[in-house]
Amino acid sequence: MFTVEKNYVGSWWFSHFTEFLTIFVSILRSCTILLQFSGDRTIICGDSGNDLSMFQNVPSCGIIVGNAQPELLEWHHNSPPGKRYLAKSHFAAGILEGLDYFGFLSRSQEVTNAASSAVWENQ
Q1: How crowded is the C-beta side of 115, counted as CA atoms within 13 Å?
Q2: The domain spanning residue 65 has which CATH number?
Q3: Which of 21, 30, 49, 118 has its CA 20 to 30 A from that of 5?
Q4: SS (H, E, C) 74-113
Q5: Tens digits of per-residue pLDDT, 79-95?
């Protein structure tokens, strides 16, 4: 059985399945343990109030995209500072902006450069 809340924002509506959120947070925690990712190697991203559970219960860096719904923005502005970033860009561009902010894109570039260097040295 699922608890469904219908939420309206202007002419937009979305459904909030509370059990899915609980399951998602649990799955995310299990995956980080199974894959041996530390919290500093995990990023959560969201754009609406149904993502609040992740931001409140997962101790990882978080990205709120620029087109986030008012409920999530209100929570962000009224909560103590944390490991989260409010992007200016919308949708996937906001996620890329946040990944850059937290240094994930530069880490990826460092790994790519190190791998290229290693291949060059072995030739």
Answers
A1: 6
A2: 3.40.50.1000
A3: 30
A4: HHHHHCCCCCEEECCCCHHHHHHHHHHHCCHHHHHHHHHH
A5: 999 999 999 999 889 99
Q: Pick 49 or 113 by higher pLDDT.
A: 49
Tokens of 82: 């944390």
* Amino acid at residue number 70: P
Query: For the chain, how many structural domains are there in total?
Result: 1
Strand order in the sheet with 43-46: 43-46, 61-64, 84-86
| Domain assignment present for 123 | no
Residue 31 included in any domain: yes
Dihedral, CA of residue 4, residue 9, residue 12 and residue 15, to nearest 10: -10
**Entry pTM:** 0.67
Q: Which domain holds residue 30?
A: 4-115
